[in-house]
Amino acid sequence: MPRPIQATIHTEALRHNLSRVRQSAPDARVWAVVKANAYGHGLARVFEGLRGADGFALLDLDEAATLRGLGWRGPILLLEGVFELRDLELCSRLDLWHTVHCNAQIDMLATHKTHVPHRIFLKLNSGMNRLGFAPAQFRAAWARLNVLPQVEEISLLTHFSDADGGAGIAQQLAVFERITQDLPGERSLSNSAAILRHMGHAGHGEAGLSSDWIRPGVVLYGASPDHPAHSVADWGLQPAMSLRSRIVATQTLDVGDTVGYGSTFCAPVPMRIGVVACGYADGYMRSSGPQGTPVLVNGVRTRSVGRVSMDLMTVDLTPVPDADIGSEVTLWGQSSDGVLLPIDEVAAAGGTIGYELMCALAARVPVVVA
């Protein structure tokens, strides 16, 4: 039989999370962000659950071609734009919208020969200081684009660095509004955290932020963009991925026995542990805090003990005395009987975020779509 680890992609959860996003921004159109192979879920696997979006946003031309191959005929936005001149040929061929964040991309457009002008999202660096034109340069960039015959329409875009709870969003929004106040074109401002926290129509919104196009990413996959301030339950989200395995062996420890490489766990009392077919080669975290990471065994919450190795990890069976070889272990998501283990809690125990775990799922893990 195959190794007993499997990820399940939940199509109905994707639909639910997309609907939850629309509740927070009912007047906005939605870019479903599917970069990084749909946050590790698989672009083809999430397509059915997210095809109710108004458009898809991603980074790679290959992923854009995949979407067209799946039958998507609506808008597709390249969030980082093009990287070289020949990319514009594919943008024309695949009918892609694309971001412009630097003068080099405007130079490419100016030399591009096309019969069909392009739809552009011009990016303002409002404080993230990654991509985008500085406020003092933005209007000159807009003016350059506006006279190009290669450009059909210019929309305006920025990305908030502190939408998940920092005070900077108000300042960055003020910069955006000041620089773009009399420029025509649709606006796209809100990522996952800004949608839930600042668009204000439902849930816990804190401000009346408006946006013609919103860009939900991690919320679509059932993780909280501002954990631990809010959980997925607070935001009404459902996990789009469940990672489950099984116990393949058990061990009985005496007081003082240690577990795993480096002997980092020492049994304080006699106890049973389960050996689980999951390791860092599957995309699980190698490191965790002194309390381990939460897991579910037969739907009962317990924790990992000792270091995670390449192919195996060990869990405390004390809360689950009837667990044995073959018992189900949920690493994140939902157990088969519906008990939830949020990916954010697992990630936090290892000092990271749910995004990283999703994206790290290894190619060797079998994936099914439910």
What does this molecule look like?
The chain has 370 residues and is an alpha/beta fold. The protein folds into 2 domains: 11-223, TIM Barrel, CATH 3.20.20.10; 241-369, Beta Barrel (Lyase, Ornithine Decarboxylase, Chain A, domain 1). Helix content is 28%, strand content 24%. It contains 12 helices and 19 strands. The strands form 3 sheets. It has an 8-stranded parallel beta sheet with strand order 8-7-6-5-4-3-2-9. Strands 10-13-16-15-14-17 form a 6-stranded antiparallel barrel. A two-stranded antiparallel ribbon has the order 11-12. Strand 4 (76-78), helix 5 (87-94) and strand 5 (97-100) form a beta-alpha-beta unit. Helix 7 (135-146) packs parallel to helix 8. It is elongated, with a radius of gyration of 23 Å. Residues 201-207 have low confidence and may be disordered.
Strands side by side in the biggest sheet: 8-7-6-5-4-3-2-9
Strand % is 15-25%
Assigned CATH architecture of the largest domain: Alpha-Beta Barrel
Structural class: alpha/beta
CATH homologous superfamily designation of the largest domain: Alanine racemase
Rg estimate, integer Å: 23 Å
Helix content: 25-40%
